[in-house]
Amino acid sequence: MTSVKKYIRERFFPHIWCPGCGHGIVLNCMLRAVDQMGLEKNDIVVVSGIGCSSRISGYVDFHSLHTLHGRALAFATGVKLSKPELKVIVPMGDGDALAIGGNHFIHAARRNIDMTAIVMNNRIYGMTGGQYSPLTGYGKAATTAPYGNIDHDFDIVELAKAAGASFVARTTTYHVQQMIDMIKKAVAHEGFAVVEILSQCPTYFGRKNKIGDAVEMMEWFKDNTTPIGSEAKRKNPSLIERGIFVQDKKLEYCSEYDKIIEKAMKGRG
Amino acid sequence: MSKKKKFVQGNEAVVEAALCAGLDFFAGYPITPSTEIAEHLAYRLPRIGGKFIQMEDEIASICAIIGASLTGHKVMTATSGPGFSLMQEGLGYAIIAEIPCVVVNVQRGGPSTGLPTGPSQGDVYQARWGTHGDHEIIALTASCHQDVFEMTVHAFNMAETYRTPVILLLDEVIGHMREGLELPEPGEIPVVERLRTSVKAGVDYHPYLPREDGRLPMSDFGGEHRYNVTGLLHDMWGFPSDNPGVVHGLIRHLVDKIRNNAEAITRYKEYYLENARTILISYGCSARSALHIVENRRARGESIGLLELQSLWPFPYDLVDEKCGDARHIVVVEMNTGQIVRAVKRAVHAPERVVLANRIDGQFITPTDIKNILRLIQGKGV
Known about the structure:
The structure holds two protein chains of two kinds.
Chain A: H1 23-37, E1 44-48, H2 56-59, E2 63-66, H3 72-82, E3 87-93, H4 94-100, H5 102-111, E4 115-121, H6 156-163, E5 167-172, H7 176-188, E6 192-198, H8 202-208, H9 214-224, E7 225-227, H10 231-235, E8 240-247, H11 253-268
Parallel strand pairs in A: 1-2, 1-3, 3-4, 4-6, 5-6, 7-8
Antiparallel strand pairs in A: 5-8
Helix pairs in contact in A: 1-7, 4-5, 5-6
Chain B: E1 4-9, H1 10-21, E2 23-28, H2 35-44, E3 51-54, H3 58-70, E4 74-79, H4 81-97, E5 101-107, H5 124-129, E6 138-140, H6 145-162, E7 165-171, H7 172-176, E8 178-183, E9 228-230, H8 244-259, H9 262-265, E10 268-271, E11 278-282, H10 286-299, E12 304-309, E13 311-313, H11 317-324, E14 329-334, H12 340-347, E15 354-358, H13 367-377
Parallel strand pairs in B: 2-3, 2-4, 4-5, 5-7, 6-7, 11-12, 11-14, 14-15
Antiparallel strand pairs in B: 1-8, 6-13, 10-12
Helix pairs in contact in B: 1-2, 1-6, 3-4, 10-13, 11-12
C-alpha cells in the first residue's frame, strides 16, 4: 500500500466531511495518482471553489487555492497561463462546476487550457443542507424540491465533449483503481481534462431519496454503471457508462500563447 | 535629453503606466469605455513576454488576475460600471486573501447598462462599499493623462505595499479624450516590487502573519513554500478559522493596514488655496472644468481655489478639513447626485457651507455649470 500521508496537511485535520461521504475516496485516489506519477509537491496547484468537495484543497500539501463558489476554473486559468509549468488540478462539486460555475466550465473546456477538472458529482448541494443541483435529476427529492424535482439534469460527459474538452472520463467512488488510473491519465494529458466521479452523499441525497447508507449507495454505483460500449449497456441502455470517452490531441491554450509571444516579439524588431 | 511624448487617450496612458509599473498579466472582458485598455495590452503584453487573456466575463477576469498574482505577477483588469458590478465578488476575495491587483473602472452612466458612451462619476461609493462585508479600499483617480500615468503607477505600488486590490476610478472623458503624455524616464517614478519572504525552504512560512510593520511578505505559487489561500476568514497559515480572536484580528488587520497608512496613500493637488474664500473640491474629469473656473476668476482677482482629490478612498478627512480652513463657500464638483460631497460634509467643521455643483445628464460638466452654482451661493443670482 502506498502511503498518501506525506501529501496530507495533518495539521488541518479532522476534515469536515460526513461519515460515509465519497469525497474522502476521491482525495485518496487523487493523492495515489500524484504519488504514482512521481510529481513534485511544489509543481502542483490545487484550485477549488466552494462546497463540501472544495475543502479538498486545504487538506493537501500542495499549493492550494480555495476560491469563490463556481469560480475555481477562472482562478485556475490565471494560475496556469501565468505559470504554465505548474500542474493544475481543480476539484469541484456538481453544483459548483455546473450551476454557478457552468459558464467558466464550458469556456475553460473550449480554450483547451491544460488542467484537470475533477467533478465530484453527488447530485446535491451538501454544505447548505441538501438542495437540488443541476445533476440531481428529474423526479428526485431535495429540500428545495419537496414535491419532486422538475429540473432536468446535465450529462457532464456530453457537456464537456460538446464544449471542447480534449480528455473526458467518468467513474465512481466504487471503482477506485479506475479512478486512480483516470486521474493519472487526465493529469498527464496536455489540454483540458474532465473527470466526472459519481460520489455518494448519504447524508442528503441518499437519505432524501431513500437509497440507503454509503455502502448501499456505492453498491448502486456498481450495479448501475458499466464500461463504455459493454454488452450490458447494449442490453440495458439505462446503465451509466464508465471509462475514457475522449482522449484527443488538440492545440493547447498556453502552448498557443507561447506562439503568440514568439510572433509578437519578432514583430518588435 | 528630450522625453518621449505621445498624443494618446487616457486609456492608453493607463497602459503605458501599467507597463512601466511592471504589469505582465492582464485578463479582461470588452466593455465601453474601457475596451482600449484591453486592446492595447493584447498587442503590447506578448511583445515583452507578458500574457493577455480575454475571459468569458468580468467575474472570470478578476478571478484570473488573482490567480496570476499568486504566481508572482503584477496584474490588472479593466472594466466599466456593469463589469465592475460583476467584479465585486472577486474584489472581496482579493481583499480578504490579500492579493495585490489593480482594477480599472472607466466610469460611464448608470445604473445598469445606463449610458455606455456617456461620462459619469457615479461609482464612487460602489468602489468604497460595492463588495460585501467590512473592509477598507484604496481608490485613485486623475484628471489629466500625465496624472493618469502617475496614479496608475501609484495604484500598482499601493497594491504591492499593502497586499490589496487598488481601484483606479477613471471616467469616460478621461478614458477617451486625447492629449499629450510625456513618458517618464525609467526610474523617474519609483516602482514598488513585490515583497517576497526570506524564509528558507523547509522552514515554516506563515503567509498571513504580518511583520511588525504590518506587511506580509509573499511566496509565489510554484515556489518552495506551499500554503493555503482562501476567501474564508483564516489564521496565519491561511487555513479557515472561526476562532473569535483570529477573526477579529484579521478584520482589524485588513482595515488598519489601510486606515493607518491613509497619509501615505493620499494624493491630491491644490491650486490657490491659501486664504481662498471659495474652495472648489473636485476630481477626475470634473476637476478640469473646476480648474478652468478657478484660473479664470483668480486672474480677475477673486479669492477662489481648487482642491483636486486624486485618492478618493481612504477619504482624506483631515486634509480636506485643514485645506478648507475658514472658507466661506465649499463647492464640490462631481458628476453624480452627490457622492464625494457627503464625505466632504463629514470632513469639514462647517458642513453647512458645503454645496454640490453637479451634472447627471450624461454630458460633461462645463465651467458654465459651475459658474451658475457659484452665482447662486455667492448671492448673485443665475
